[in-house]
Amino acid sequence: MTLTTPEARALLLRLQTVANSPDVPAKRAAIMSELKAAGLSTPAEIQGAVGAVLRENPSLESAVADVIRAYQFHGEDPVELSKKSYDVIFRKMEGERWFTFFNHGLAPLSEDEAAELPRLEPDDERWRHQTLLYLYLLVLATRVRGGRPLGGLDLLDVGCGRGGGLSAMKRYFPLGKAVGLDLNANQIAFCQDRHRDVEVEFRQGNALEMPFEDASFDLLTNVESSHCYGDVARFFREVHRVLKVDGLFLFTDIRAPLDVERARLERQLREAGLEILLEEDITAKVARACEVDSTRFRFEVFGSDKAAYPRQIAREKYQVYSTRSAIYLAYALRKARG
Q1: DSSP 209
Q2: Of 23, 191, 222, 226, which cross-links 163 as Cys (Cβ 3.0–4.6 Å)?
Q3: What is the spatial distance between Cα 103 and Cα 125, in angstroms, rounded to a whole number?
Q4: Strand-strand pairing, 274-281 and 327-335
Q5: Burial (CB count <10 Å: 0-12, 13-18, 19+), residue 105
Q6: Are 46 and 69 in contact (CB under 8 A)?
Q7: CB 166 within 8 A of CB 160
Q8: Is residue 27 within 8 Å of 63, Cβ to Cβ?
């Protein structure tokens, strides 16, 4: 359904009123109800409605942001949704030491793309695509540094999850200090035990208030995590704070497939003092990884019947990315001087 500009403006004004509610679950449910009543369901329909109004009246951005987040998370608060997801994962995967990744993976789509990535050791093949997503970020870092190696650079991985990504980055690149940060204490305890054979450190802490001094790291990675944060702009300011001058921020995440959402994200990055050096829509590469893993993740790969869980996730996410119901973006950014 296509709304006229006056209809879209009236909808957003109603949503702006809803957005002032302190009751987050009720607010998002109300937004979804308004969208449904207006006949808006697809990304193109929402894009058409909010885009025209935002161009006409930029002050409505807060209402637009809530529309987008409500659409992306089906009316649920992303922070609460993340907490619930972690609880489900821990119950399902307790005691499964092989379960070291959460991310949806990346599969190169050409021989040239594959050649740019490190050749994996046999033990890393079972989580091939998830490992390659992290290594891809450091390939980007090397690329924007003009091919200069990353030897001795200190790295922080924010939202490190089960620690597999940090372990891989440390093993495949000659980094200096490598630190993983995650809000969840259970995750950190798992990482400290599971990855004790790799020279990495894990700390519990909040991405919005990192427990590190200013200018502590040369590189900062953040994979498929920021969409769950309550204040993404604050996170980007923290990234700027803990990076050294000219330090690099390597960032991938999921977003709603709306131009206004991507524009808002990139403006928040710039306003935090982060200069975009490289950006790429890698949705097709992530979709390919999910497609392959939706049949590859089996008992024979992991030695556990619980391989059915990541296989199910891969199937679900393949449908999301192959239809571009969500997009997956990657950035290499630099802490600006001054």
Answers
A1: B
A2: 191
A3: 15
A4: antiparallel
A5: buried
A6: no
A7: yes
A8: no
Q: Which of 76, 100, 132 is the last residue of a domain?
A: 76
- Number of continuous H segments (helices) and E segments (strands) in the chain: 14, 7
Q: Are 136 and 130 within 8 A, CB to CB?
A: no
Report d(CA 204, CA 187) in Å as an integer. Answer: 9
Q: Which residues constitute the domain of residue 173?
A: 82-335
Could you say which of 55, 76, 97 is where a domain stops? Answer: 76
Nearest to 105, CA basis, from 338, 335, 336, 318 = 318
Residues 101 and 44 in one domain: no
Number of domains in the chain: 2
Q: Which two tokens stand for residue 266?
A: 């990139």
Of residues 266, 292, 332, the one with CA closest to residue 104 = 292
Question: Per the structure block, which two tokens stand in for 144?
Answer: 């924007």
DSSP character string of 229-288: -S-HHHHHHHHHHHEEEEEEEEEEEEE-S-HHHHHHHHHHHHHTTEEEEEEEE-HHHHHH
The pTM (predicted TM-score) of the whole model is 0.83
pLDDT in tens, 287-323: 999 999 999 999 999 999 999 999 999 999 999 899 8
Query: Which token pair is 194?
Result: 């599971």
Contact 194, 163 (CB under 8 A): yes
How far apart CA 289 and CA 105 sit, in angstroms, is 6
Give the tens place of pLDDT for each residue, 141-187. 999 999 999 999 999 999 999 999 999 999 999 999 999 999 988 88
